[in-house]
Amino acid sequence: xxxxxxxxxxxxxxxxxxxxxKGREAGKNQYDELFVVHIVKENWRxxxxxxxSDALEYLYDISKAYDASINVIRATDIEEALQNFAxxxxxxxxxxxxxxxxxxxxxxxxxxxxxxxxxxxFEVIPINLEERE
Length: 133
Prior knowledge:
133 residues; alpha/beta; 4 helices; 5-stranded parallel sheet; 33% helix
């Protein structure tokens, strides 16, 4: 039985638990690995206006509940950091929340898909209406 490796890319938005849950559901068996990844651009706060310790504890608890490893990484280039993580951990599937950016240059999903050369499966989870507010 082959083990799948799933990377869930999150931000400080309130949709992160929903994305982590989708990541766990994408696993086909108990041996699949789930990696939750949050990249923080250097000189930015980890979680915006939230208290950093509260945000990290919340994220740790959610990841633990879904049997996922949590990875918070500081980097100058977000796409490169995600690409390096995916290659290092031999990721099969990348799960990301829908981007509201219409411009391809501003859309993180498009930029990451063009940057990663390996044949990864990208699953984009639509934003719920209540998250748009």
